[in-house]
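__Protein archive entry__

___
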Amino acid sequence: MQILGVMAFFHGDCPDAEREFRSALRAAPSLTKAQALLAVCERKLGEPSAQADMSSAFAQIRDVKLRTQVGIELANFYY
């Protein structure tokens, strides 16, 4: 469930959050916030797909705070 992923994410548990977000996205691929948070977890876990996933999610995010967070994480790829 997405809520479990969010709770794990904000407790710093990216491995559990990643599993929950992937499960939620299998059921509902249009969950843009889950896509964005999953991409942040992927970056923290060093997964090679993180940058592409984060760029894709960033383009769809409308929530200002989340868009800022993902934008900062995405900018870190370029430094």
The radius of gyration is 11 Å.
